Amino acid sequence: MKVLHYRQRIDALGTVLFVAFDEPDRLQRTLLRGLKLPYPLLVDPERSAYRAWGLGRGSVVRVWGDPRVWLRYAAEIARGERLRRPRTDTLQLGGDFVVDPEGTVVYSRPQRRDDRPPVAALLQALEHAAGESAARGRASKDA
């Protein structure tokens, strides 16, 4: 997970929360294999959070028909990685959100296929949320 490379910067700006629908032991064996996740991971097997955030399901053609997906797998094979058989719902789409300290969504990007936003975009949204929150805090003290 690229976001872990920016942990110090992220930690200075706020809190991170991961939400997944798979069983925790399966997540440890697959997605999180070899990673020590420093943030809370909430498991939502009923996917109620996914529905609440408007995260839908992709079609087989939309998810698996994208040439970028196959190029990514080809690059992984070229690096010597062993591909694992999907054992979960590969059509459930995720998303990335930034919520400011007041609970306002300041960044929303539902996933369309195997595409995640650049970490720089998430960091920019976190910095903006932290700056806006600090400015509101200063303004309320001055009032």
Indicate the proportion of strand residues: 5-15%
Ends apart, CA distance between termini: 43 Å
Low-pLDDT parts are: none
The number of helical runs is: 6
The domain tally reads 1
The assigned structural class equals alpha+beta
Helix content: 40-55%
CATH class equals: Alpha Beta
Main sheet record: 2 strands, parallel
User: How are strands sequenced across the largest beta sheet?
Assistant: 1-2
The coarse silhouette is globular
CATH topology: Glutaredoxin
Overall mean pLDDT = 82
Which features would summarize this protein structure in a list?
143 residues, 6 helices, two-stranded antiparallel ribbon, Glutaredoxin, alpha+beta, two-stranded parallel sheet
Explain the overall architecture:
This protein is α+β, with helices and mostly antiparallel strands and 143 residues long. The chain has one domain (2-142): Glutaredoxin (3-Layer(aba) Sandwich), CATH 3.40.30. Helices cover 41% and strands 12% of the residues. It has helices spanning 7-13, 24-29, 48-52, 60-64, 67-78, 119-142; strands spanning 18-20, 41-43, 95-99, 105-110. Strands 1-2 form a two-stranded parallel ribbon. The chain has a two-stranded antiparallel sheet with strand order 3-4. β1, α2 (24-29) and β2 form a beta-alpha-beta unit. The longest helix is centred in the last third of the chain and has 24 residues, at 119-142. The protein is globular, with a radius of gyration of 17 Å. The mean pLDDT is 82.
